[in-house]
């Protein structure tokens, strides 16, 4: 019966053809028809107000202009009234919004706390219809901000929040990043537009003049020998080796590395070499821009490095447009930006170092380098995992990516190329950090060797092998210590644990060594990690030397991979270069697999005064070295 009474009292709302006169206050009129014992938390009087206005217009035919029609009133100035009633039938709150603003807001209205939820307000019908204005689509702006969740450690982006980054597994590193409209006219600003504006004012060029060219026409008249910018001196030659023979005009080179590795020092030295201009017979301007240091701080470091080049210009700024404007005035031969995470573009969303800023700034510098043929060096920060901070697209945009590696306890630095469009990525530069800056290591092959004394008994358990890193060969020392009845079964440092277990098992099974009750300790000198299988034979020889307490004579090296049957396998690449390195350093004998001995005999190593001994398995190695 209560439901019937409700429908009977509100029956005029279900019959739109029947006109019921409404009092000037629609809220009071609507409230009078409501049962006070039944809660009505949310009611719309929009339709009632529209009907009342229609009745008023009908009573006043003199104002029959189109602007006073119900439709015009609804689209232009009609205000919607939302009334919330409590359990006693008393209005709780009124929410009034104009027709245009209603289309821009969300399509849900809720009532908070003690009054419960008021439900969702859907667009359509008489409840919350969106405006007919073309700027709104289903109650939502076309230019609504897009939200990303970006990892602050590795730069990985997700469409929703996660407790841990799914790329680097770092907990609590996902930060909210909103990408919206920028610029005065609501349009976004890109790095290509900024660089084009600067280049267009510098080198005017009509779009009709740019057309496809034949490959033969492009290469005609270009001397490949003098095309690159050479870097003179021992330091410059080492850097040029990593770059593929020199600096390519118009290239964009990214240099990354851990804090304190020497990135800024290296690029300051490179800038000084280019500014000296030995290849062109005179000095040329080079601009070094820093967003992290002041000009005085850079000058102090240059004074410590004893750089006195007059055409090396220093500038401190973080605005890309301002930097390119200074380059326009100076017209340098090269540009150095330290670092890409500190510069920004006006009109691009996000702060300096953000994903969008890094991408657009790099795009602007890339476009500038290609248009002006000026090489640009960029310094990039790295994350805890060792990757360059920022979006992964950064490494795809640039022409070359160089990494400066080095341990904090060591003064040696390795410059490695992981991407190079103009050369090989197998090259490796080796430097030593000193008070005068980075210096070239004279003999890098002996970098990880210690002093040897063949008359000392402490050399028992020491073997030498040759590894390759890119095109460079290095000699490594493998140390082994076997202790009978030790509480520790095995301790390995610098050798993969699984590989060490396999070599020890093969020595016990195939060579007959009694290692079951012995504690074995393995170590690679200088903290290097042995990744190649070429060092398997040296690890086995060091263990045999320690177990037999027989020092390996100096001047003997081991190169080879060990199989599960105890055989020596011929799977080591560049065997001839490894043997050639040993011969240059004065080694007298090299133990290699039997098949390698046959192939090396045809390469003419007789004049290098080194004996190449081939062995088929571990038993022959023990008989050759220790008997």
Q: Which runs of at least 5 residues are low in confidence (pLDDT < 50)? A: 21-46, 61-88, 90-140, 180-184, 203-208
- Gyration radius (Cα, Å) is 39 Å
CA-to-CA gap between the ends? 112 Å
The overall strand count is 26
Mean pLDDT: 77
Which tags fit this structure?
627 residues, nine-stranded mixed beta sheet, four-stranded mixed beta sheet, 29% helix, alpha/beta, 18 helices, globular
Topology:
Layout: H1 2-9, H2 26-32, E1 43-44, H3 46-59, H4 70-76, E2 79-85, E3 91-98, H5 99-104, E4 136-137, E5 140-141, E6 146-151, E7 157-158, E8 174-179, H6 191-202, H7 215-219, H8 233-243, E9 252-257, H9 263-276, E10 286-290, H10 295-304, E11 312-316, H11 320-330, E12 334-338, H12 355-372, E13 376-380, H13 393-397, E14 400-405, E15 412-420, E16 428-434, E17 437-440, E18 462-469, E19 472-484, E20 490-493, H14 497-510, E21 518-524, H15 536-548, E22 556-558, E23 561-562, E24 568-569, H16 575-584, E25 589-593, H17 594-601, E26 611-615, H18 618-626
Parallel strand pairs: 9-13, 9-14, 10-11, 10-12, 12-13, 20-21, 22-25, 25-26
Antiparallel strand pairs: 1-2, 2-3, 4-5, 6-7, 6-8, 14-15, 15-16, 16-17, 18-19, 19-21, 23-24
Helix pairs in contact: 6-11, 6-12, 14-15, 15-18
């Amino acid at each position: 019966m209560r439901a019937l009474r409700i429908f009977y009292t509100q029956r005029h709302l279900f019959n739109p053809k029947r006109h019921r006169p409404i009092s000037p206050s629609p809220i009071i009129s609507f409230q009078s028809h409501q049962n006070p014992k039944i809660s009505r938390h949310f009611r719309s009087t929009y339709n009632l107000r529209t009907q009342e206005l229609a009745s008023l217009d009908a009573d006043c035919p003199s104002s029959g202009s189109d602007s006073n029609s119900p439709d015009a009133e609804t689209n232009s100035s009609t205000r919607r009234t939302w009334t919330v009633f409590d359990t006693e039938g008393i209005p709780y709150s009124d929410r009034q919004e104009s027709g245009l603003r209603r289309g821009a807001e969300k399509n849900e209205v809720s009532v908070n706390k003690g009054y419960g939820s008021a439900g969702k307000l859907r667009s359509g019908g008489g409840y919350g219809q969106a405006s007919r204005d073309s700027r709104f689509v289903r109650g939502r702006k076309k230019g609504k901000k897009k939200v990303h969740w970006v990892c602050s450690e590795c730069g990985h982006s997700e469409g929703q929040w996660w407790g841990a980054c799914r790329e680097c597994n770092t907990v609590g590193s996902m930060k909210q990043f909103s990408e919206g409209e920028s610029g005065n006219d609501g349009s976004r600003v890109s790095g290509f537009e900024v660089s084009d504006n600067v280049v267009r004012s510098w080198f005017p060029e009509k779009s009709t003049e740019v057309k496809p060219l034949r490959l033969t026409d492009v290469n005609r008249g270009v001397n490949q020998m003098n095309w690159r910018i050479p870097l003179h001196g021992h330091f410059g030659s080492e850097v040029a080796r990593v770059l593929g023979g020199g600096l390519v005009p118009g290239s964009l080179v990214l240099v990354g590395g851990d804090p304190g590795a020497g990135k800024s020092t290296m690029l300051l030295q490179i800038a000084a070499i280019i500014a000296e201009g030995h290849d062109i017979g005179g000095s040329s301007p080079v601009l070094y821009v820093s967003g992290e240091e002041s000009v005085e701080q850079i000058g102090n470091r240059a004074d410590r490095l004893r750089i006195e080049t007059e055409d090396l210009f220093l500038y401190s700024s973080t605005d890309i447009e301002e930097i390119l404007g200074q380059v326009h005035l100076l017209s340098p031969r090269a540009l150095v930006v330290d670092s890409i995470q500190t510069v920004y573009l006006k009109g691009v969303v996000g702060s300096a170092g953000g994903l969008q800023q890094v991408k657009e700034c790099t795009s602007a510098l890339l476009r500038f380098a290609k248009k002006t043929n000026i090489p640009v060096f960029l310094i990039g920060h790295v994350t805890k995992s060792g990757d360059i901070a920022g979006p992964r697209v950064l490494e795809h945009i640039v022409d070359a990516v160089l990494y400066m590696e080095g341990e904090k306890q060591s003064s040696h630095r390795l410059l490695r190329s992981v991407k190079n469009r103009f050369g090989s990525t197998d090259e490796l530069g080796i430097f030593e950090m000193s008070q005068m800056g980075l210096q070239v290591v004279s003999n890098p092959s002996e970098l990880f060797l210690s002093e040897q004394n063949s008359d000392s008994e402490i050399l028992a358990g020491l073997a030498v092998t040759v590894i390759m890193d890119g095109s460079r060969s290095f000699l490594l020392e493998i140390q082994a210590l076997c202790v009978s009845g030790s509480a520790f079964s095995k301790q390995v440092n610098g050798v993969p644990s699984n590989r060490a277990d396999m070599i020890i098992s093969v020595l016990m099974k195939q060579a007959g060594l009694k290692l079951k009750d012995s504690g074995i300790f393995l170590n690679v000198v200088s903290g290097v990690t042995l990744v190649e299988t070429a060092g398997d034979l040296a690890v086995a020889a060091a263990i045999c030397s320690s177990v037999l307490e027989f020092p390996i004579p100096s001047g003997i090296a081991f190169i080879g991979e060990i199989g599960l049957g105890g055989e020596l396998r011929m799977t080591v690449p560049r065997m001839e270069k490894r043997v050639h390195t040993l011969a240059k350093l004065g080694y007298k004998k090299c133990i290699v697999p039997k098949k390698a001995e046959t192939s090396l005999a045809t390469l003419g190593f007789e004049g290098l005064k080194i004996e190449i001994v081939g062995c088929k398995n571990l038993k022959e190695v023990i008989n050759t070295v220790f008997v």
